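Preliminary data (for renewal application), cytidine-5'-monophosphate complex.
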Amino acid sequence: MVHGLGHNARMTTNAPVLTIDGPSGSGKGTISRRVAQRLGWHYLDSGALYRAVGVAAGWADLDLDDHGALVRCTFDTRIGFRDDAAGELRVLVNDVDATDELRTETAGAAASAIAAIPEIRAALKDRQRAFRQPPGLVADGRDMGTVIFPDAPFKVFMTASADERAQRRYKQLNDKGVSVTLDGLLREILARDARDAQRAVAPLRPADDAVHIDTTGLSIEDVVEQVLALVPREG
Ligand code: C5P
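Predicted structure:
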């Protein structure tokens, strides 16, 4: 399935939405994708939009303090999603496959800085809402349940201890042959959490009606089942 994110947001629908918000490393990316597959629903990786703008800004050599240029870059950047033959989600930035670059710590840090700019959050709102299509949407991010889809019928706030999140990330990067220290990762995670939670616009916080799931010590399958149990299904 190809999701082109052009400037003309498609009409939004009343299709059901399951929002999964939480800090990085809580497991929400993996869980959201699996839950979407099991439900046969669409999937929105909202962090990828902020990362894509960060990568595009890097390609254009923009200064992260130049908010005007970053806002223009947001409007000018084409962001597309498609599944490859192996069923992995690929992200296209201005028609270039930037999936691997998007996952780097540099892109994450740029995304987090960019995500604190209110005009950029506003510019990406309709692009995110356009993903709400039948039969349903699983939306993964920081403000899915609070700002983008406040009327979503199903909301989860997913956490895990900072130590466990650092360890998961360490393992992921080690498996990819990237050399990092656990201590350094823990520091980065805590700094990013603080920035995401303290920013003035759309800070990371649970929606009042979100179900909290702490994934520390739980397997992916356990969490997937807990989330699926929240969504009533026919048959
Ligand atoms: O989820 P991911 O780690 O890809 O997100 C990258 C950054 O984008 C986060 O640290 C956060 O600052 C920002 N973000 C956001 N709102 C979202 C999703 C991500 O502010 N809905």
